[in-house]
């Protein structure tokens, strides 16, 4: 009896600690308790619908509210015949562009700022603001997508608008290398 009491006394704080710690696991949201009143359900759905509508409005605002963005337009990627395993990247600039240009490469379309920031930067140091052509040389075998942005668009004061086929590619650039057998 005394051993059982002692074990229970030891296990009780450990169980309490584990239960308390489980609620702080990141990425796990607590679920609301089930209720019999269906009116709470409709309020929750209304909130979700309002949230989705706000998100859609914000997305449409980002492209129509800033007509001068993106600063780089008509991004094209073609095979460069001058160098093996290389791509010639060309674009048009907004006349107001006055900050350096970054060209990045990734293995999937660069549709968000997060993907853009995680992409491989091909321009270190960045290109001058009047540049409209870049050659990506000695590309490893694979499938790649490109994006071009100005440093102003990436700054805290800037506006980053990513448009498919405008400042990032939606058609992959594929590099095949002859395998040595």
Question: How is this structure best described in words?
Answer:
With 181 residues, the protein is α+β, with helices and mostly antiparallel strands. It has a domain of 104 residues: Immunoglobulin-like, CATH 2.60.40. The chain is built from four helices and seven strands; from the N terminus they run ααβββαβββαβ. A four-stranded antiparallel β-sheet has the order 4-3-6-7. Strands 1-2-5 form a three-stranded antiparallel β-sheet, with no helix packed on it. The longest helix is centred in the N-terminal third of the chain and has 27 residues. The radius of gyration is 26 Å and the shape is elongated. It starts with a helix and ends in a 6-residue tail after the last strand.
Q: Tell me how many strands there are.
A: 7
CATH classification, class level of the domain at 72-175: Mainly Beta
Categorize the overall geometry: elongated
CATH topology of the domain at 72-175: Immunoglobulin-like
How would you write the strand order of the largest sheet? 4-3-6-7
Q: CATH superfamily membership of the domain at 72-175, which one? A: Immunoglobulins
**CA-CA gap between termini:** 74 Å
Low-confidence stretches: 51-63
Helix share of residues? 25-40%
What is the percentage of strand-forming residues?
Answer: 15-25%
The ordered H/E elements are HHEEEHEEEHE
Main beta-sheet strand count, sense and barrel state: 4 strands, antiparallel
**Overall pLDDT score:** 79
CATH architecture of the domain at 72-175: Sandwich
Number of helices: 4
Based on secondary structure, the structural category is alpha+beta
Radius of gyration: 26 Å
